[in-house]
User: What shape does this take?
Amino acid sequence: MLIGYLRNGASESYVRRLFDTFVMDDDIEEIEWTLKTPVDELADYDFVEDILTDSMVIKWIEPKYFSVLNTSQYFTNSEAKFYS
Assistant: This one.
């Protein structure tokens, strides 16, 4: 399940544009990457970790955000208005 969120999040263009190379190997569960603008090794690892975890959270929360329960608050009982 988490691999799906990771793969979907890493495939977004706003994530991919940060890397020169980005390869995910499902067989050995390894990610190989090089940044377009590297700083130093520790900072790069922290940055990539933050970017990938943020993209995973975004992919996890998107269906919940767009669900019927969250959009139902725009409907009223007396009026059938939908604000988009």
Observations:
- The longest strand covers residues 19-25.
- The radius of gyration is 18 Å.
- The mean pLDDT is 83.
